[in-house]
Specification:
heterodimer; A: about 475 residues; alpha/beta; Amidase signature (AS) enzymes; 11-stranded mixed sheet; about 10% strand; B: about 475 residues; alpha+beta; Arc Repressor Mutant, subunit A; 3 domains; 9-stranded mixed sheet; 3-stranded antiparallel sheet; 15 helices; elongated
Chain lengths: ~475, ~475
């Protein structure tokens, strides 16, 4: 029998419901796993073993009364430290919020508790979700469980690494330009960015409001579907939340993809893509074809410009979103003789380099006389990206690409080269600009022995379809490889 | 050189919705600092705004009352600048797609009517309040500062006029008329002293009909009187500078209430770049035709129409219609008095005279008047019936206002009913004639003006209660016939 930390969310919930194991046992097994691996991995900014234990105890007591259990009862969960939990330190990976304890919980936090999950910790991340490696965290880099000398990707690197390393079977991340899918790819787990507005952003510390979206991590597609069901839904506290009813994502999960029209995004097959990544992607296409998928190449010309547009829109919004960190109300405060100097010093000392870089970029892009040339133009490109997708979905049901052009890179390798770092998000950004859903699933190991991710993209609210395609592919290929830990 | 002032006003109006613009916190005035706050209006990380539908509708109603077009699609924008009393360091406001555009407001000064164009009416959130703790209350000398966010997030409507105003008096009339419209709509408390309405003025001078001059903005005028004082001062300042051949600076000035002087706050070079961009946390507002027409048909009677109706229905002069129709409460008082049987013109005279005086003295509004419309009508009736004379009635009114007692009761209790009994009056007249022999002689010798003095003596003798017309007749009869 496998160790408890090796079990999937589905298995854990089932065994607890059956009375084979207790939720407290599950919590302790994962707490112990975290304690053992944290010195090497650093997946968490704040582990919360006591919360997990207390929640587990409540689940066990509830089971003892014979009351029905929620779908994820007793399943440990890693929550990216960008989502507010009432009374629990929430840093967004930043020094400026080092001592910040929110007075309220985000909507997903309530939903996850209602679903029965156990919060094992607040996961590490790039500061304010800005980065692709977790190297921008004020709390140290997270190591990739496949190779401790490498990054786990980012910005949700802590959640991805925790799920890959068996510290929790499921995790929550946020994806603004690829921040769930890219670390999922680099850590060999499943990660999904739902449709913008499908999951409430209330309580999510904003990076770029029009792009940010909360989504699930898991080690298999079924768990991903379960977790998505736990967090999706309309929230009156988020004006951009979608009112459409949420389908049961497990329904029809195994319906297969026979006859599904699959477009390969031509622009993702560039020379910059690592040969091993291109190889596994090719293998994946063959598998999809063998499953009855009708595969064809499709060109999305605006894909090439999406990155530039993203690096104007996201910084512009972040320059405004991060203005509130001024030392007046909460978080860090630097000493200074006047208010404006206090604001400036607090921000100078509290923010890291990448955050400062993007705040300055965004401030510039929104300035009088530059707005039309930068922010205005970027919004037009965004419209073009949406149009390209719309056209493609006239002919195709889903689109596929590698999730990331490379496998996990070495810590420090790209840290001093922002542009090289930004290229990590080349294939993931278009879905954020379009507000459309996309999933990354493991598709084997590259020549360097590191995991590669397959990205499946679909039109708005096509989560069921994406999960079905991913499930068919996963079932055909067999369980994903696990890191040597 | 003859210069003409060119003035445009931006008036900020706090709406009287129950909850704030983007959260559920109460909007009631006062309260311990920072008790009417939540994660949203404190700008806690991760919190999100949800627009208040009532506030959007109130703004649309203001626009409709001002003859604006409600835009089918409008947007909230973020206005970015750092200020400690602004929780997010941006204000959710509107920019190039406001809720309402292109209206008008007619104002009348000394019989001359002017139409002031309304550029736009838009919706935004208010900020908190900084308290500078130190000897002077000024930030530069403060030991430390505190911020109260109770007002942060209160819905604030901005009404922007075209530069169509030409004098301080017109500006005051414009603000008074706008205030009256807002009051009629019931969308704001319009209490300027509590800051629920405040204005900024843009002013420049030019040769009549010529090019616009250099524009100066005067911030935070928080009473109609301040609008008048500040503009009168500023027009003079600019005129003198121009006449002396000095160039004016484009700048923002502050009006100092105590000295009545405007002072430089910041120059154009120091102006903020607000980096407006569409608020990504909110959806565009779509004002459907059905929604707009439902609001339009719910508009109450507006002040201009109300005044015209009052004048026509009750034969009031323009001034009287303005006075009694000044507010919803005043109109209600007037109409209540008329409904209780008083003649409209009498009611208007009493309201402008005795009621106005009593309210002024007591420092209260008409809604707190301690003489009811029915009581006033009763008093007017008693004067008409010659039960009391007019001067006594005025005294009764003030006594009733002070004590809260019924005027009829006061008349009875104090024995203030008019004396029309000829026997009683003859006795009083005889006494006056007897004790004023010299004056009686002078009158009889043809000195007519002494008559008034003698009437006064009789009124005094009767403690003011005598029917003055009767006294006149009887006294003249006695003096000319030599009787009594």
């Amino acid at each position: 029998m496998s160790e408890l930390w090796q079990l999937s969310a589905t298995e854990i919930a089932m065994r607890i419901a059956n009375g084979e194991i207790s939720a407290v046992e599950v919590a302790e097994a994962h707490n112990a796993r975290i304690e053992a691996l944290e010195p090497e991995i650093n997946a968490f900014i704040t582990p919360t073993p006591d919360i997990a234990r207390a929640q587990a105890k409540a689940i066990d007591e509830r089971r003892a009364t014979g009351a029905p259990l929620p779908p994820l009862a007793g399943v440990p969960l890693a929550l990216k430290d960008v989502i507010c939990v009432d009374g629990v330190r929430t840093t967004a990976g930043s020094r400026i919020l080092d001592a910040y304890v929110p007075p309220y919980s985000g909507t997903v936090v309530h939903m996850l508790a209602d679903a029965g999950t156990l919060l094992v910790g607040k996961a590490n991340m790039d500061e304010f979700a800005m980065g692709s490696s977790t190297e921008n965290s004020a709390y140290g880099v997270t190591k990739n469980p496949w190779d401790l000398a490498r990054v786990p990707g980012g910005s949700s690197g802590g959640s991805a690494a925790a799920v890959a390393a068996g510290m929790a079977p499921i995790g929550i991340g946020t994806d603004t330009g690829g921040s769930i899918r890219q670390p999922a790819s680099l850590c060999g787990v499943v990660g999904m960015k739902p449709t913008y507005g499908r999951v409430s952003r209330y309580g999510l510390i904003a990076f770029a409001s029009s792009l940010d979206q909360i989504g699930p991590f898991a080690r298999n597609v079924r768990d991903t579907a379960l977790l998505l069901n736990a967090i999706a839904g309309h929230d009156p506290k988020d004006s951009t939340s979608i009112p459409d009813p949420v389908p049961q994502y497990l329904d029809g999960l195994d319906a297969g993809i026979d006859g599904l029209r699959i477009g390969i995004v031509k622009e993702s097959l560039s020379e910059g893509t690592q040969p091993g990544v291109a190889g596994r992607f090719k293998d994946a296409i063959e598998t999809l074809t063998s499953l009855g998928g009708e595969v064809e190449e499709v060109s999305l010309p605006s894909f090439a410009h999406a990155l530039s547009a993203y690096y104007l829109i996201a910084p512009a919004e972040c320059s405004s979103n991060l203005a509130r960190y001024d030392g007046v109300r909460y978080g860090m405060r630097a000493d200074a003789p006047t208010v404006s100097e206090m604001n400036a010093r607090t921000r100078a000392q509290g923010f890291g380099d990448e955050v400062k870089r993007r705040v300055m970029l965004g401030t510039y892009a929104l300035s009088a006389g530059y707005y039309d040339a930068y922010y205005g133009k970027a919004q037009k490109v965004r419209t073009l990206v949406i149009r390209d997708f719309d056209e493609a979905y006239q002919k195709f049901d889903i689109l596929v690409s590698p999730t990331s052009p490379t496998t996990a890179f070495k810590i420090g390798e790209k840290a001093d080269d922002p542009l090289a770092m930004y290229l990590n998000d080349l294939f993931t950004i278009p879905s954020n600009l379009a507000g459309a859903p996309a999933i990354s699933i493991p598709c084997g190991l590259a020549e360097d022995g590191l995991p590669v991710g397959l990205q499946i993209m679909g039109p708005l609210l096509s989560e069921s379809l994406l999960l079905r395609a991913a499930f068919a592919y996963e079932s055909a290929r067999g369980p994903a490889e696990r890191p040597p830990l | 050189m003859n210069y003409e002032a060119v003035i445009g006003l931006e008036c900020h109006v706090e709406l009287n919705t129950e909850s704030k613009m983007f959260c559920g916190c109460p909007t009631t005035f006062g309260g311990e600092p920072n008790t009417r706050t939540c994660p949203v209006c404190l700008g806690e990380p991760g919190s999100l705004p949800v627009p208040n539908r009532r506030a959007v509708e109130s703004t649309m109603m203001i626009g409709l009352a001002l003859g604006c077009r409600v835009a089918p699609h409008s947007l909230f924008h973020r206005k970015n600048y750092f200020y400690p009393d602004m929780p997010k360091n941006y204000q959710i406001s509107q920019y190039d797609l406001p809720l309402c555009i292109g209206g008008r407001l007619d104002v009348e000064v000394a019989g001359t009517k002017t139409t002031v164009g309304i550029t736009r009416v838009h919706l935004e959130e208010d900020t908190g309040k900084s308290l500078h703790i130190g000897t002077t209350g000024r930030i530069s000398e403060a030991k430390y500062s505190l911020v109260d966010y109770n007002r942060a997030g209160i819905p604030l409507v901005e009404v922007v006029s075209e530069p169509d105003i030409r004098s301080a008096a017109e500006a005051q009339r414009y603000v008074a008329e706008l205030r009256s419209i807002l009051e009629a709509l019931g969308v704001s408390d319009v209490r300027m002293e509590e800051g629920s309405m405040r204005c900024d003025a843009n002013i420049s001078m030019r040769e009549p009909g010529g090019e616009f001059g250099t524009k100066v903005e005067i911030k935070n005028l928080n009473s109609i009187r301040s609008v008048g004082r500040a503009l009168t001062f500023e027009i003079e300042r600019q005129r003198k500078a121009l006449e002396a051949g000095q160039a004016l600076l484009q700048e923002t000035r502050h009006f100092d209430e105590s000295s009545g002087v405007t002072k430089t706050l910041r120059s154009k070079e120091e102006a903020f770049d607000y980096r407006y961009f569409p608020e990504p946390d909110l959806l565009p507002i779509s004002a459907t035709a059905d929604w707009v027409s439902a609001l339009e048909s719910s508009l109450p009677e507006l002040p201009q129409a109300r005044r015209a109706r009052l004048a026509a229905e009750h034969g009031l002069s323009v001034e009287q219609a303005h006075a009694v129709g000044a507010s919803v409460a005043s109109t209600g008082y007037f109409e209540g008095t008329v409904a209780a049987g008083a003649n409209g013109r009498d009611a208007a005279v009493w309201m402008a005279g005795e009621l106005g005086r009593a309210l002024n003295n007591a420092g209260v509004g008409i809604q707190d008047a301690r003489v009811s419309p029915a009581q006033l009508a009763d008093l007017i009736r008693l004067v008409g019936a010659e039960t009391v004379n007019l001067n006594t009635a005025k005294r009764v009114f003030q006594m009733a206002f002070e004590s809260g007692d019924d005027p009829g009761v006061i008349i009875g209790r104090e024995g203030m009913a008019q004396v029309s009994d000829e026997g009683a009056l003859a006795t009083a007249i005889a006494a006056v004639v007897a004790s004023n022999a010299t004056e009686v002689e002078r009158f009889r010798a043809g000195e007519e003006k002494v008559f008034g003095f003698l009437v006064g003596q009789v009124m005094r003798e009767t403690k003011g209660k005598a029917n003055p017309a009767l006294v006149n007749d009887l006294l003249r009869k006695v003096l000319t016939t030599g009787g009594a």
